[in-house]
Write a structure and sequence with these properties.
By secondary structure, the protein is of the alpha+beta class. It has two domains: 106 residues, no CATH class; 137 residues, no CATH class. 28% of the residues lie in helices and 26% in strands. 36% of the residues are buried.
């Protein structure tokens, strides 16, 4: 199929062909993967996802941009540079031809929404133990995302990389927190991945509560980035949020959803 991607004139035909190429003659496994990736455990989640996948593959409906990103993650499109430009171009054309999803996206109501957990007092203490012997903080654009570079002050085992949280290495207090769908870092680097908020306008959950909801990773660990500001559509603007910071310890790639956003973290030497 390599080299033939430019022959597809419609996104749903390319989507269907890629599914078949990856062994998905039907949508049973895809629907299960979709529910697992979105962490949707509702009783109707599987059937809703199955219906939406059928509609998307037949061209009856176009997935929303959020679901398009999830499909990109599921099929590992970003790992196929010969496919990616055609995948994106045909989707944009499909978006212009007809409304995305509409009433036909059965998975949309069933996907896990961004919740408004009860607020808790923000953690006030900062650990004195330092992870890095030296750190250089680079401001990445106007969004205020911060990347920390440094070296570990002591070696860590692979298990320790994800079995516990690390000390604070980035402080986003009072700064704008951006979510990053793709994080590429070298071993020893830290980056703000997302922000956890509470109810609109109120303080976010404490770090211990946030940590319990984060996935365990084989290529790094999480740490508290302090309380900054996250722009939320649900809150119609900025609201306090606790920065979630990832520190890379081992090469490898992890894919997951966090606060309803698909995230890929890729660590290199």
């Amino acid at each position: 199929m390599a080299g033939a991607f430019d022959s597809f004139g419609e996104w749903h035909r390319l989507f269907d062909a890629l599914c078949i190429e990856r062994g998905h003659l039907d949508n049973a496994t895809l629907a299960s993967d979709y529910c697992a990736l979105t962490k949707n455990k509702a009783s109707t989640a599987y059937e809703s996802s199955l219906k939406s996948l059928n509609n998307w593959r037949q061209g009856l409906h176009t997935p929303s941009r959020r679901n398009f990103r999830i499909l990109t993650l599921m099929l590992r499109i970003e790992d196929a540079p010969e496919v990616l430009p055609h995948w994106n171009r045909l989707y944009e054309e499909a978006q212009r031809r007809k409304p995305a999803d509409g009433n036909g996206d059965a998975s949309q109501p069933a996907t896990t929404p961004e919740t408004d957990p009860a607020p808790t007092a923000a953690s006030g203490g900062r650990t004195s133990r330092r992870l890095f012997a030296a750190a250089v903080f680079l401001l990445l654009g106007a969004g205020g995302s911060v990347l920390a570079l440094g070296t570990f002050d002591r070696p860590q085992t692979h298990a320790a990389a994800f079995s516990k949280a690390g000390p604070q290495v980035i402080d986003m207090t009072g700064q704008r927190i951006e979510a990053h769908e793709l994080v590429i870092a070298k071993v020893g680097q830290s980056v703000v991945v997302h922000g956890s908020r509470g109810r609109c306008g109120e303080q976010p959950p404490g770090w211990e509560e946030v940590l319990q909801g984060l996935p365990q990773l084989s290529n790094g660990f999480w740490s508290d980035g302090g309380v900054g500001i996250r722009v939320s559509r649900a809150c119609s603007g900025g609201t306090p949020a606790r920065a979630v910071v990832f520190t890379a310890t081992h090469p490898g790639q992890e894919r997951f959803t966090l606060y309803d956003d698909p995230i890929t973290i890729r660590v290199t030497e």
